[in-house]
Amino acid sequence: MPKYRWPLVGLVCAVVVCLAAQDLYAQSSRRTRRDAVESSWTDGFQAPRRLIDCPTAGTLRRGSFDTELRAFPEGGMLGILQIGLTNAWTVGIGYGGTDIIAANSPRWNPHLQFTTKFQILAETMSLPGIAVGYEDIGFGRWIDTLDRFETKSRGFYAVGSKGFQGAGFTSSLHAGLNYSRETDDNDEDLNFFFGTDIRFENNLGLVAEYDMALNDDKKPLAQGDGYGYLNAGVRWVVLDRILMEFNLKDLTSNRRHTSTIGRELRLIYVESF
After folding, report:
1. Is residue 1 pLDDT above 80, yes or no?
2. If residue 121 lies in a helix (H) or strand (E), which one and from where to where?
3. Which of 71, 112, 179, 247 is the least crowded, having the fewest Cβ atoms under 10 Å away?
């Protein structure tokens, strides 16, 4: 029990604070909050559910879904499907592997991955949106010997997001904490992450995130050197429902077993039933 004490305390505190805040802004203003999120974050594309690897407090609208396909080093491919069950609750699955775009036999991930997110407090003009969730979708290659992804899955997390609108652009700030269940490397620390995204009127945008990776710095089994992971990307809303993104990953050269910056291509399609 002691090794889970701080992660559980952090998540419980986040839930208690968010539920208390939700009582102050109940049913009568929910529609106003949803409109504020949509107008400040997006122009019809819905609030971003993820920066690059890190989740946001954004959820899909009820009756809509998105499909995400990303290509990453070592011939890797990852597909993620998410569905909005309600305006505040999104669920999804993911699956992929490496050596898929290669001359070798594909190395598939060992099992289907799962994600769920519940927005317990919608954004207002003065308060951020807050969500809690669970996700065992990790990124990069699967490491059999450590029973984990190259970039650990989030596990249990809580995250807050606040949108802003300026002359000719919309942007948002995000910050959260998580406890990953991938702990065979003997690193069970609570982790923190934060980031930002901005979208201009010409449908181009920028995104950046920093994952402190406090749960991936205990040698000799850690994949990181303790600097954290800094990722950045360029987004292009090709059509109203199609977004393309090119990302540069690990700008801090934190990963121990690579010598260059990672490159990744990401494609997202959003639709309603």
Report:
1. no
2. strand 113-121
3. 112
Please return the burial class of 256, using the count of CB atoms within 10 Å of its CB with bins 0-12, 13-18 and 19+: middle
**Placement of tokens 């991930």 in the chain:** 109
Lookup result for tokens 């919608």: 122
147-167 pLDDT, tens digit per residue, is 999 999 999 999 999 998 888
In whole angstroms, give the CA distance from residue 136 to residue 109: 12
- Is 163:170 a contact under the CB 8 Å cutoff? yes
Q: Tell the residue number behind the tokens 């839930």, with chain if given.
A: 15
For residue 204, give Cα distances in angstroms to 118, 123, 200, 233: 28, 24, 6, 11
As beta bridge partners, residue 196 has 173, 208
State the sign of the Cα–Cα–Cα–Cα dihedral 163, 165, 168, 173: negative
